[in-house]
User: Fold this.
Amino acid sequence: MKRTLYLTLFLYAVSIASGGTTVSIDGTQWHINGKITCPCTAAEGLLMNVRMVNSTFEDRKRPDFDSDKNTGRFVSKIPEYNSYGVRAFTLNLQGGFPGYEGAVNSAFRPDGTLRKKSLGRIKRVIEECDKRGMVVILGLFYQRQDQILQDEQAVKIAVVNAVNWVKDSGFTNVAIEIANEYDHGGFDHDIIKTAEGEVELIRLVKKTVPGMLVSASGLGHGRMNDLVAKEADFILIHFNGTKVIDIPGRIGALKKYNKPIVCNEDDKVGDEAVQALRVSVDNGCSWGFMHKNLNQYEPFEFNGYNDDQKVYDKFKQVTTR
Assistant:
């Protein structure tokens, strides 16, 4: 089973003309360019990540907001984040909550076709990560924004268009997250907000681009629906609402799937975040930092190490020999 998955991913990677980074999975471990991540460290085989969904933010109701400048400020800091052990960023084609209601932020039109200008900012980030040997966890749908899509058929068209764009762009450093917290009450379309719908969309990705890594995340309780977990290539969870003391148990309950376990959203900061990072790594789970007050809520700030020095010191410690 392990060899079959690895071979499929390898064939997918080499079949695409890519000038840079390739992400793959071998068993429960992450590989970048065919080599295990963070070798001989506490985070060996893990994908340590930071949520930066609003690094590509736009609000079409606000022509005063300079989206390109916002993305440029983030891109300039990617080398610094990388130097502290960050191996992946989470982005989303529909962004994330910016701290206020009513934003219109989507790379999709109502019929599921793609908006070139939005993709341009996503592309800038993916290309910079590609150069740095980094991975992008690319979300497709976000609560509060799926309403832009007119119906279920448009959702399916959006999925096909998005993953074909990744493939046609030659990006092999991208893993897909169908929806951010798919079971969130802010989604309207049943095909997004139900486990059965997520399974259908995961299968659609696999049919459209065989070998492309794909999953979906649930709410901040650190749990995953059995149907989604079985269909996904990796287990994607959030720890926002999970106490540090409960993290080992949540991770342990997911190990039965024998797949990589990745937290790609935890909004703890400072000492509490350091504890969550340490406990996650100690239990074989990749950990993802979400500094919502700086990186996600407007005005968006991308200060590298100075976002949270304690957290980035710990990132570096667990990823360095």
Notes: DSSP finds eleven helices and eleven strands in the chain.
